[in-house]
Amino acid sequence: MPNNTSPRSLALSSLLACEKCGRYTNLEIDSGLRNVSLSPADKGLYTRLVYGVIERRITLDYVIDRYAKTPTADMEPAVRMALRMGVYQLLFMDRIPSHAAVSETVDLVPRRSAGFVNAILRSFLRDGCKVTWPDEGDTEYFLSVKYSFPAEICALYLADYGRETTENILAAFNEEPPVGIRVNTLRHTAEEAAGLLAGEAENSAVPGMLSARLLSEKIRQGLEAGDWFIQDPASRLCTLVLDAKPGETVIDTCACPGGKSFSMGLDMAGEGTLYAFDLHENKLSLIRRTAERLGLEKLIQTARRDARQPDETLLGKADKVLCDAPCSGLGVVAKKPDIRYKELSSIENLPAIQKEILQGASAYVKPGGTLVYSTCTLRKAENEAVVHAFLAANPDFVLTPFTAGSMDSDGMLTLLPHITGTDGFFVAKMTKKTN
C-alpha cells in the first residue's frame, strides 16, 4: 500500500482485502497501519471505518439496496465497498460532516461510477439518513437488519434467550468495547498502574484490572515492558473463579494465546507450577515470550498437547485445572466482527469436541481439586449442555457455588454483555469429591 494514502483509501483497500481474501480484520488493520504513515486522528478514522463497515455490513447493504437500482450483490466490489463506507459515515459517525462523507466517498470510485455513488448517498442524505426497518413480524429478519447479524445467528440467540434479551445482547455487541488491562501485580498495584497511565486508564471493579477507552501509545509501551497485558474483564473473572494460589499446581489445558495463564500466574505470585498446554506448537512461543516479559518464565511451563489426551504423568496431580475450550466465539463479536459471519456448519460439531476436552481436563484434577470450564460464547449448546453432560457422566464432580465480582452463582454463570459490560462469557466451577 502506498505511504501517501488517505485513511479512507487505505480503509477501502483493507476492506476489499478482507472481503476477497478472508483476512481477519485485526490482522489486516495491523498490517495496514505498519505500512503507512498516518496521524493519530487518521489512524482512528481508518480503524473505525474498517471495523465499522465489517460490523454493520448487513445493515449498510439493506440501506443501499433501498436506493440503488442495482443490488449490492451485483455491484463492482470497489463501488459496493465505497458505498458501504459512505453510508456508514452518514449513519454512524456523527462527527464527520455529511458533505465530507459524500464527497470523499465519491472520490474513492472510478469516474464512471461517481455519479451513481453520489446519487445514492445524496438521496439517503435528503431523507434525513433515516432507515425504515423491516416489519417486526419477521423477528429474525428484523433483528438481522437492525443489528447486522445473520438471521441464523439471531435464531440461535432467540432460541436460547428469547426476544428481549436477544435484542439487548445484539445491541451491546454493536457498542465499542473498552480496553481491559490486567496489571502485572508482580511490579505494580492496580492503583500504581493507574497512576502511570493517568488520564488514559482508570481503575476497574474487577481486581487487578484497569479500563481504557483507547489503546494509547503509553499503554502500548507498557505492554512491551511487561507492566500489563490486554485482557477482557470477563476473562479475568474466569481466573478469579479458579482462584489459583501461590505454591499450587495449576494446568491450563487450552492456553493460547495465554491471557488466562498469565492472569493465574500473577494470582500465584509466580510461585508454584503452571502448565500451559495447547494443541498448536507455533502459538506456544508467544506464551513463552510474554511470560518472560511479565517475569513468569520460571512458573509457566509450556508444551504441545491435545487436551483430549492428558499427560499421564500429571493425572490426579493438579490443584486447579482450567478448561477454556475452543468455541464458536459468539460472545466476542464486539471485538472480532468477522465472527458474526461465520458459517454455522463450522460450529455444529463443537459441543462434541468440548465434551471430550472437558473429560480430558478432568483427569488432571486431584481429589478436592477445582475444575473450571469456560467459553467466550453465549450458545447454551456449548455451555450449560456440555457441563450437564459431563456431570452426568462423572458423578465424582459436583458444581461449586462461587461469587464473581458482584455476581453470585450456583456453579454456572453466563456473563451477558448488556448487563456486565464485558465480553459474552460462560464459566462453570466444579469440585472433585474426596471420596
Write the topology of this structure.
Blueprint: H1 7-21, H2 25-34, H3 40-55, H4 57-67, H5 77-92, H6 98-106, H7 111-126, H8 139-147, H9 151-173, E1 179-183, H10 190-196, E2 202-203, E3 209-212, H11 217-225, E4 228-230, H12 233-242, E5 249-252, H13 259-267, E6 273-278, H14 281-294, E7 300-304, E8 318-324, H15 350-362, E9 365-375, H16 384-393, E10 397-399, E11 402-404, E12 407-409, E13 412-415, H17 417-420, E14 425-432
Parallel strand pairs: 5-6, 5-8, 6-7, 8-9
Antiparallel strand pairs: 1-3, 1-4, 2-3, 9-14, 10-14, 11-12, 13-14
What tags apply to this protein structure?
four-stranded antiparallel β-sheet, globular, eight-stranded mixed β-sheet, alpha/beta, 435 residues, single chain
